[in-house]
Design a protein that fits this description.
The structure is a single chain. By secondary structure, the chain is α/β, with parallel strands linked by helices. The chain has 14 helices and 13 strands. Helix content is about 40%, strand content about 20%. Strands 2-8-7-6-5-3-4 form a 7-stranded mixed β-sheet, sandwiched between helices. Strands 9, 10, 12 and 13 form a 4-stranded antiparallel β-sheet that branches. It has a two-stranded parallel sheet with strand order 1-11. β5, α6 and β6 form a beta-alpha-beta unit.
């Protein structure tokens, strides 16, 4: 079975495994207080052009979202998200379980707008008794979105302005950040993300690391006591150096961006092949996630060889799927899929 259903099927980049092996018997301080975490944090701050940021390393995306949003919000405050936002649809109510309601807004291709955010806040504060409803406090975005789409720099700047006007924090989920930053047509840089977000994270689990996410806290208001939130949410890894070492390796010699670009290039080849065969797409994505609409008969043939994620039944005879490439997707597997799309389509 060749898996195109997600971007974390593989283990870790060989250079990470090599470094983990080389340093396996080293002794170091625990809980992220080691030289590797400190070095990785400095590298990330330099790349972000944000020397006053704080960088913390956690193990996974849900844990990171839960911890960051707990730090952003008082018990009576809520989080604004697209209805398709990861925290709203894929995290089993983790955020609500801490007492924070997710205010889900209608999205267009996975994105929400500055005007939606402003309108929602205006409606809250103009209510006769605003304290009867959760107070909006944090805007949650992901870059790329769940549909592989991207916010433009102007869209992010507009959202930042709306957040400032309404006294909101802006949190950007970067589980797939590398795939977004290296996508064709993207006009947002890592430094832009750091300048616009109060807090964001750089995903490692989906982009070359065995596990791990790097939280970058740009707003000093959120830096104080963040490690207390990490500990309370089970986010401080005893062997923290394993996280720092991985991110230090990922950001050596531009590796993180090179392997992210590879995934996008593999996805682009599949996209072109689907277009050549005349298939429509549910969403137009420039990143490693593609959403072609395939005839069910063709899909059943392909699924004898490949694993895909089913997204939506479009009609009685067609299904939209997600084809997801990764940093480790092999060109020969893409070659085979492209050939089989043509072969099975013609049969």
């Amino acid at each position: 079975m060749i898996r195109f259903n997600c971007d974390y099927s593989e283990g870790a980049h060989p250079r990470i495994l090599e470094r983990l092996t080389q340093t396996n018997l080293e002794q170091s301080a625990g809980y992220g207080n080691d030289p590797y975490c400190r070095q990785a944090a400095e590298v990330i701050k330099t790349l972000c052009r944000c020397p006053r940021a704080e960088v913390h390393f956690l193990t996974g995306g849900t844990q990171t979202n839960l911890t960051v949003l707990a730090a952003c919000s008082r018990p009576y405050q809520s989080i604004i998200s697209a209805v398709s936002g990861h925290i709203n649809v894929h995290e089993a109510g983790a955020i609500e379980a801490t007492g924070h309601r997710i205010e889900s807004l209608p999205e267009q291709y996975g994105k929400i707008t500055a005007s939606q955010i402003s309108h929602f806040c205006k409606a809250h504060w103009e209510d006769d008794n605003p304290e009867f409803a959760p107070q909006p406090r944090t805007v949650y975005l992901s870059f790329p979105t769940e549909y592989g789409t991207l916010y433009s720099l102007q869209e992010l700047q507009d959202i930042r302005h709306a957040c400032d006007e309404n006294h909101l924090f802006l949190f950007i989920d970067g589980a797939r950040l590398g795939y977004g930053l290296t996508a064709p047509g993207n006009d947002v840089t890592l430094a832009d993300i750091a300048a616009l977000a109060d807090v964001f994270y750089i995903g490692g689990t989906k982009i070359g690391a065995l596990f791990g996410e790097a939280v970058v806290i740009c707003n000093p208001k959120l830096q104080k006591d963040f490690r207390y939130f990490m500990k309370q949410k089970g986010g401080i890894l005893a062997k923290g150096r394993l996280l720092g070492l991985q991110f230090l390796t990922l950001f050596e010699d531009n590796l993180y961006f090179e392997i992210s670009k590879h995934a996008n290039q593999m996805a682009e080849r599949i996209k072109i092949a689907c277009q050549h065969e005349g298939f429509a797409f549910l969403y137009e994505s420039p990143t490693n996630q593609q959403f072609p609409i395939l005839p069910n008969e063709l899909l059943s043939q392909l699924e004898e060889i490949y694993a895909f994620a089913h997204i939506k039944r479009v009609d009685k005879t067609h299904t939209a799927i997600r084809i997801c490439t990764s940093w480790a997707t092999r060109p020969e597997d893409v070659d085979q899929l492209v050939a089989d799309l043509h072969k099975f389509r013609r049969n």
